[in-house]
Amino acid sequence: MATLTKLSGPGDALYTELCKAAQNSIEGLRKVFFQSDIEQLATDTARDKKELLPLVQELVNHSLLRLSKLDRALCWSTRPRDAATAISRLNADEKLVYSYVEDAHQKGIWLRELKKRTNINPNAVTKAMNKLENAHLIKSVKNIRAPAQKTYMLYHLVPSDDVTGGSFFDAGDLDESLIDELSNLIIFHVRMQSWADTKTKRIKRETTPPPLTAADDPDTAGGKKRKRGPTTDIEDSAATTRKYRLSAYDTDDPTIEIITQLALPAYSRAYPSAEAIHSFITTTDAIRASKAAQLTVAEIQNVVDVLVWDDKLEKIGDGYRTVRGIKFRPPGFLGDEEAEDGDKVEGNGLTQVPCGRCPVFELCGEGGPVNAGSCVYWGRWLKEGA
Amino acid sequence: MAQNLAELCTVLIENHIGELSAQLFATLAEHGRLTVHTLAEHAKIPLRRVRTGLADLMEEQLALHFAAEEDAPTYYSVNWRNAYNLARHTNIVDLVNDRHGELAGQMVGNILQLGHARTGDLAEAYDLMPASKRDSGVDAAADHMPENGLGNGIAKASSAKASHDMSTFEFHSTLRALLRSGVLVKVGMRAYMPPSDLQEQIEETVISDQFPDRKVTGPKKQHDFKVAINALKRKWREDDAYSDLHDAGSRGAIKRPGDHFKSENKRAKVNGGHANGLLNEGEQSTSKLSDDLVVRVDFSRCTMAMRSRRLEQHAKRFLGGVTAAVYGALLQTLEGKVRAVHDELAADMSDDDESSLPAATAAEVAEILDPAIELGASIKGLATDKTLTNGTGKKGKKPHDDFGDFGIKRELSDSEDEPTTNGYSGYRDRANRLSSIEAHLALLEEHTKRYCKRVRAHGSSEWRVDFPALTATLVEAEVDTTIQARYGKLALRVARMLRERGKLEEKQVASCAMMRIKDIRAILTELQFHGILEAQELPKDNGRQPSRTLYLWFCDTFRVQHLFLQQTYKAMARTLQRIPVERERYRTVIEKAERTDVKGREQEKLEQPEKQALREWREVEERLLSQVDRMDEMVALLRDFSGRDTSLTT
């Protein structure tokens, strides 16, 4: 093999023909040719099977064609020319290793698996792998399912979603900020379609605020969240019917915008479904085009599911609507999100008392090491509320 | 398991009646049913004191007693439900205040403190009657009521004498309204018998009446037997139930057949005569109740009302106040149509779940709904568009904005073409109001929680509420709230996902929750440690090594619900136990305030810092007690709303 003759003219022509066919097909380099396919393509270069055979054999020898078996029939697929030249310089072990990696395709193959399959000396495999990697024939990728294992695949291949974990993974790591932004975008989109707003402007400096809004006034005063007493209802506080914000960013403007969230009449409309959300996300400019093209409906559905579990969206019919009182972050909003969310955690009767969160609750008992009298949390709790 | 509950009940009884009864209750709770002698032995209390303590317990219906025959020894056992219900008093008074007004709330509060009360004695306590015969034995309870109030030394100011301005008419109509709504019920003799003995007695009666050969073997006879038993149970229950007709004072003489156990009606004959003499001309419309009618508060009825309130709050969270108010009215309408949260006697009669649920029309809802609530404001397009059919409401939007610019509240904008105060002035308004109500109900139906359901029958539409499903929703929501408050948002996400998706492996959990596997592992372990999640082992081979094992995580809501219930019991007990500890800190000033020469003249007799300390103490106590009330709401939700929990049956 080391002394390989130069590729003949008809062989070259056939190879070019096959490459063209492969490139035009949807599978690209993965396109598999059966004998009949090649015969059809090779009408110019070889008139019958007798002439075709040496040509194919020559290409295989030059590593320009890869031989494999599919359903007991022989078939061939093309290799890039530069890869072929690199391969032809390899020794037998390396070629064997290469063929296994090639077979694994977009899924990639573990190093350990490779050693087991090739059945050659593990050290030789490692050596071969290093050489192949340096020659840019293969590359190691991070597999999301087994981050500790080394996975290899051909250099020119793009790892499949199984390996990378899908759109939400960036180099094997979860892209949390992408998920976060996407969630916010989805909430924005759904919110706009699922509730009607009425805006009422009101003069800020009023001597007597109207009774309806009087209770909520402290919200506007310092921009601070109002502390709620332990006896306030959770449900009451959770539903933020009225949102206050200073209109524009102009503090001189004496009006306050009161936004009241109005329900749309039941059964009057279809709320956006996961598909609709997907088409919105992929057509908007908010997300990089390459990323947007990659996003699938299933992935969007996953994000939507998480939002449902987080009580941000609720399912209505086939579509989704934002839960009442859920706000999206306006673009460029840098406020502390946790602080805002934390305000909502009112808990219930059990979790409000120290016992509900007591680390030694199980030990607590009359005459025990901890009891109602010796408890330190109660004192703190009672002081807090005073 | 019952340990936490027993502890809580003991603390409650100690606060309510006193230490002696609490000790007896604890002994009975520990040992089951006992005779007086064995009880005295176990509790190490002299027999004489045991008898007094038991009497106190029985007055409050905290103990049950039954003797099989005349001479047989009487066995005593505890009544868990009533004992726990001591913790629910404040919530019930709140509820009655909301629905029937302050006056009713006050009366219910008094009846709750007494356990049960004779109408005549109640009326007397309110200074409504010239002194009459006191003969029912309830009076003893009335006598020691005010001092012991809540065991805190500073008795609540809700003494019966507080409202002198109540008229006889008000008293009786309120009482009647409460009876009719089911908040109050008549007490019959059977209320004191343990259910198991009652069951035995019923069986015995049925056998001796209908099965002369005393044999109930064989499928056919078994079935007949069961039917007969249920029929008798229902009959007895109806006998014991209040009815406008039978319990009117003037007709107290009517005696129902088969009523061997009641004695009050005989007396009613005696009192009934002069009872009517007090009524004025204008008050004739409501006939007076018999003085000897003994009433108590029906807790299961109140549980139902609490459930309605909770559902309304839940709907409010998702759909806003106005829709929730409509829902509340619907629930209240439906409440009138069912007997209890879960009626086990009715259950075996109906074969179809759907049809057994009560239904109500929009018109019925409109009757209960507060007419001051403006229905149009919260649904887009309803406010100004009179026709609901297309509901697009393009016209509806405009006026709001116009008025908004002038700084006028939107409510005013609607009043020009519609008299909002009371939409009943004309037929058209009424129709509008009904269609608005229907729109709100449709919104409730559309919601993913299915708050109600429309059933079309004979052209008119009725609305139904699937209580079992919604109760489950409420329980889940409560469990979720607890998880979120304790372990954070992410833990809640994981728990809800596992509940929805079933058993999942670690990696699947991570990918579904869109989180890193490392973070997920931490959450899963924490939740498992606290009993929220559980993992099922699935070994890959026979070796069962942990490293070669899959772990499928799951969340069993039922188990978590019971875990939280037990924890709530315990936390309630601790909260109540903390009160005396806190009280100790303020002991000197409380004692001074209670001295006979100071009491009633605190303002002049106490120093400024003392007054301050007293105020602080009241705040502390109030805080602890209101927290107990909140936990009771949770217990009601986790345990009582479904009506299927049997942990309290004696």
TrEMBL record, chain B:
**Which residue range or ranges hold the DNA-directed RNA polymerase III subunit RPC3 winged-helix domain?**
479-554
Which PANTHER family does the protein's record reference? Answer: DNA-DIRECTED RNA POLYMERASE III SUBUNIT RPC3, RNA POLYMERASE III DNA DIRECTED -RELATED
Name where it mostly resides: nucleus
UniProt KW keywords: DNA-directed RNA polymerase, Nucleus, Transcription
Which terms in the Gene Ontology molecular function aspect does this entry carry?
single-stranded DNA binding
Asked whether the UniProt record includes Endoplasmic reticulum among its keywords, one would answer: no
Residue ranges of the region described as Disordered? 253-284, 386-428
Q: Which purpose does this protein serve, as stated in its record? A: DNA-dependent RNA polymerase catalyzes the transcription of DNA into RNA using the four ribonucleoside triphosphates as substrates. Specific core component of RNA polymerase III which synthesizes small RNAs, such as 5S rRNA and tRNAs.
Where on the tree of life does the source sit, at the highest rank? Eukaryota
Q: Name one Pfam family in it.
A: RNA_pol_Rpc82
User: Where in the numbering of this chain does the RNA polymerase III Rpc82 C -terminal domain appear?
Assistant: 174-473
Q: Name one GO cellular component term.
A: RNA polymerase III complex
Name used for this protein in its record? DNA-directed RNA polymerase III subunit RPC3
